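User: Run a structure prediction on this.
Assistant: Running it now.
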Amino acid sequence: MQLYAGPSRAFIEDATLRVIAAKIGDAYYDYFRHRASASEFLSWQNSLAALAQQFRYTGLLDNGVVLELQLPSSSARLDCLVFGESSADGSPKAVLVELKQWSDVCPSDVDGCVESFVGGAVRRVLHPSLQALQYAEYLEDTSEGFDVDRGGVKLLPCSWLHNLHPAAAAPLLAPGFRPILDRSPAFIQSDIDRFAEHLKTNVGAGNGQTLMDAAITARHAPSRKLLDYTARMIAGERTYTLVDEQLVAYNSILASVRRGQRRKDEKSVVVVAGGPGTGKSLIALNLMGTLSRSGLNVQHATGSKAFTSNIWRVLGSRSKAQVKYFNSFASTPAGSIDVLLADEAHRIRSSSNNRFTPKSKKSQLSQIDELVAVAKTSVFFIDDFQAVRPGEVGSTVMIREAAVQAQAQYEQIDLRTQFRCAGSDEYIDWLDQLLEIRKTGTTALTEAQFDFRVVDDPLTLDELIRDKVRDGASARLMAGFCWPWSMPDEAGNLLDDVVIGEFRRPWNAQPDARRLAKGVPPAPFWATDPAGIGQVGCIYTAQGFEFDYCGVIWGADLVMRDGIWTGQTSASRDTVVRRGGGARFTDCVKNAYRVLMTRGMKGCYLYCTDEETAEYVRTCAHR
């Protein structure tokens, strides 16, 4: 999706007549169904007028121009792409321009970042040339139109700060940024001729409209899946690009770790909070690779057997010394770990003790206090709305209180840009409003990039998911925990527990199933084994994973009655959640369906066993 695309002559004319911002604003409203903010509108008006003047000065009259292009499967948008053939060798290229109106910039102690007045305050932000570089790498990874090996257009990132006076530009052009600026140059107010030469050399031969049309309509390459690349990530290869605030978070945590290493007696706690698909696990695994290579004692921990088992599977059995569970640190000496990366921290329990813990080894600390105590720097990746069992007590509030108790330095980093659900912030906001998890004001779905449908029967749902797999996409069928979950029979075959009329399917294997028939994946690998398409996944095997498409069976444990969400314990087969009872039960079930319905990167198909609930969801989706 882009808010503006056309020939450079038309862009120059629209900007000269001062209608460019209005055209983009109208396209923004048509797409997002609400008006852009006044500050964003003003940014378009000022920066694009300056850019058009630069294009006229350079003589770019036969080029293609794309403005506000949304990155595939992301809610992030780049500012400008200008297409054309190189005047040097005739090769197809596109200059990616990150526009900034900054008039002042300050240095930052976080790698890759500077500080500037943004959004009404001085904030730590990514260096604009690095931002452009990350956008370019992300496009190269996700769109065939920019994959040079497949005949795509070569991307050349840069930044242009048209209001920045040379006297204020020193922090932006500091020697430490030289490796970035060599790949993604920065141009300031006084660089009109240098910027013109850059544009002329790379896209000055024109024919840009044809190149633009081919690039922006090209097929999106399959998104790189997290676990497929973990091994190379840990080995030190760049396999998945961090973008925007993900990279800011990553570099901020590295800065915190470095400070902790210098100040031996200082403990620090960092919370990275974000909703589904914001890249929390991706940041954690990138950090694990980087910090491991630097020789630090870094540990990765989760509360998910499925996710942890898949990391072990990809990295090999030796990784078990570094990838553990939250309850693995009860006897670990305080401060003995340099960095603890606690992924899915919403699954932290009140205590690491259980009925199998010997009395002599029972911890007197809460689990959160243990995790803070063992590491010099503890990093918690969390979504406050993903706790799906009463015993899961992790929250940003609880972590902050533990940091204060430990007299640790505390920092919270919020991730807002999400790369799941086709980058549709609207879908996440709508789902949270629908389930009354948080008030967002989004009461209907208007965007088209995320494929959401309510279907009439489970057989149709199953066929939709299987069709996607046959087409080469990743997809899984999941359900609320409303049916019995049997152990396999003597031959290791799974029983058809999920029965709805003619629809009969087994759950994924139970975690402690000892014998499974050939072709049946163990529970932890249901999400990643191709044979998982034959079973229905539950919340405990789906959480933490993503697919191109997800199919969800919404059972009778949560129904809409007279305008009120009602949790029905009688319909639940999850004995642990049922024991929570009352409001706690309803909240856990709401969170579970939120998790299930946000596993898809491109689409979610839903079947509700309760017709009144189904009709309510349909009505809310298409008001």
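Residues 222-231 have pLDDT under 50 and may be disordered.
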